[in-house]
Design a protein that fits this description.
The protein folds into two domains: about 1-80, Orthogonal Bundle (Rna Polymerase Sigma Factor, Chain: A); about 95-174, Winged helix-like DNA-binding domain superfamily/Winged helix DNA-binding domain (Arc Repressor Mutant, subunit A, Orthogonal Bundle), CATH 1.10.10.10. Helix content is about 75%, strand content about 0%. It has helices at about 5-25, 30-45, 45-50, 55-80, 95-115, 115-125, 130-140, 145-160, 165-170. Helix 1 runs antiparallel to helix 2, helix 5 packs across helix 8 (about 145-160) and helix 6 (about 115-125) packs across helix 8.
Length: about 170
Amino acid sequence: MSVSTDLDHYLQLTRRQMAAVVWRVLRDADQAEDALQDAMLRIWKKRRVVLAHPNPSALIVRMCFQAAMDRLRQRIHRRTEPMPVVTASGIRSPLDHVIDEETRQRVLAEIANLPTQQAEAIYLRVIEQLPYDDVAVALGCTASTARAHVRRAREHLRRELAPLMSNEVCHEPR
């Protein structure tokens, strides 16, 4: 198989996950599409590194997350475009939507402020619900280091978001 064919195989396996990653971070179709294109360019430029990685699919997801976080950081620094409102099923008041969106914005801003490895670790562990071994492979570190990154990220989020946070992000699932 050629490098291109091998890469296509991994991209097909992770296609939905790639789109989901950028959408969860950005919640804006245009921004998500741009981030996905940025990620695809990075993946193509580093295709040999991706294919040599022990878990190419996890690395592809990580690269998508990085591209989405880059877009989010740009948006936070510009502060010119509003974050879209996340809608939920059922009847909710406009105030509920505003509160949910403000909470989401604050959480994402705090994740964006984390060191890169911590941001990626918390995302992969909590949002993608990957086991620590997979997080470690994606980050290129040991499982204990991945746990430390997640722990430090949780501690930071717990401190900064205490009034906003529910138990789902700041506590390890049981």
